[in-house]
Amino acid sequence: MTDTSTSSPDKAWSGRFSEPVSDLVKRYTASVFFDQRMAMQDIRGSLAHAKMLARQGIIDKSDLADIERGMALIMQEIERGEFIWSLDDEDVHLNIEKRLTALVGDAGKRMHTGRSRNDQVATDIRLWLRDAIDQILALIRSFQANLLDIAEQHADTPLPGFTHLQVAQPVTFGHHLMAYYEMTRRDAERFIDVRRRVNRLPLGSAALAGTSFPIDREFVARELGFDEVCANSLDAVSDRDFAIEFCAASSLLMMHLSRLSEELIMWMSPRVGFIDLADRFCTGSSIMPQKKNPDVPELVRGKTGRVNGSLIALLTLMKGQPLAYNKDNQEDKEPLFDTADTVIDTLRIYADMITGIRIKADAMRAALTQGYATATDLADYLVKKGLPFRDAHEVVALAVRAAESSGRDLPDFSLVELQVYSSLIGEDVFQVLTVEGSLASRKHIGGTAPEQVRQAIAQARKTLS
Ligand code: ARG
Q: What's the number of CA atoms in the CB half-sphere (13 Å) around residue 63?
């Protein structure tokens, strides 16, 4: 039954107003078309709140039963796509509350006792973000598992390591990929850390100052799986630093994937030719029949800009706000949702894309013989024979100059030719001038020696399992 003495106004707050808002203002201030994504979280939060109200004797048990019955119907309507979202009801919270009241009467109107949309929305976002983080963590793990498989297959495959994009020293392809494993390991750590601060309950803060009802916040926190309750009501309803942290962690992850994308793009260029990407991640050109473009990695690189933009949007959104809640905060959702969507899609596509890389080991090795990649090994060799490092550096620089002008690589020199630069050079020099010798010698933790790469992979597999 509806209590007619407090007849339902058009809007939850229209009682104080003498004229309706214009259609433009209604559209401008509404969030229902994007915050309806949090409908299930909103309902979970409301159910936990109502359960607490009933336990505390603030509403009747029969009200709780009505609320639970109504919410079950609403969930069905939403799942079936039958729920009618209305701009007139501004946001997800008011849409659901209005429908609940239509379905169960006064119990629906009592549900909001001791609560405000301010603590309600902060709770919904945290519940939503917690789920998104859990999904992202699982996806990072699948990406890493695939990366480890390829790194293992190529623990011995030599590739030029670059500095300044100039051939520097030989590394293994496995070692190179493991660098990205380490980057994404730190990314996962960051998301785990952000999750700790996301997982605190704002509900109970009400509009800003708390509530005069005898609520039990700890109970609600337990019901919703929060680790603790937010300790200050003003802070809890107003700050969105947890969302900003999430966007920062997302920006860093995307930045790492963007770097990898840049490498894939470069490696796939016919000028480099180190890899080929599976056709399903590339597109052709409508005018140049020979083209196969690495669209997917290019888009990952491009979408990194979009994710960075969202981080800046949220930082800017927050910086000018006095305590406590301001409507500015409604603008937090679209950048946040877009960031989570972009990160989730990117990780999904990446996990698949890296398994479709064809490695052209011959091209990698050929590039190694063109850049004097073992020059440092020759210098280290001379140092081990007693020459101070700076002198060794000079000797090798002269040898490289000569090699360059005669169009050869260092291992192409004869022993006699090499001895022109230093009499310390002996027959054993050819071992260190080979790519395999160079790789095998870097056998400490973090080095590129195949045995170390295998150990790093084994360690990573333990962490992942
Ligand atoms: N739609 C609002 C938001 O996203 C909900 C909170 C509104 N609170 C208010 N007092 N207007 O932030």
A: 22
Give the C-alpha separation, 231 to 250, whole Å. Answer: 27
DSSP state of 212: S
Min mean pLDDT across 13-27, 84-98, 415-429 is at 13-27
Residue among 260, 331, 456 nearest 29 (CA): 331
> How many domains would you assign to the chain?
3
285 catalytic? Reply is yes
Q: What's the pLDDT tens digit per position in 289-305?
A: 787 899 999 999 999 99
Q: Residue 84: inside a domain, yes or no?
A: yes
Q: What pTM was computed for the model?
A: 0.94
| Closest protein CA for atom 12 of ligand 1 | 330
Residue 394, in any domain of the structure: yes
176 in active site: no
Distance CA 269, CA 293 (A): 9
Q: Are residues 308 and 378 in the same domain?
A: no
- Tens-digit pLDDT profile for residues 149-160: 999 999 999 999
Is the pLDDT at 2 greater than 80? The verdict is: no
Task: State whether 417 and 308 are in the same domain.
Answer: no
Q: Peptide bond before 243: cis, by omega within 30 degrees of 0?
A: no
Residues 283 and 372 in one domain: no
How many angstroms separate the alpha carbon of residue 215 from the centre of ligand 1?
22
Does residue 460 share a domain with residue 446? Answer: yes
How many angstroms separate the alpha carbon of residue 229 from the centre of ligand 1? 20
Dump pLDDT digits (tens) for 393-424: 999 999 999 999 999 999 899 999 999 999 99
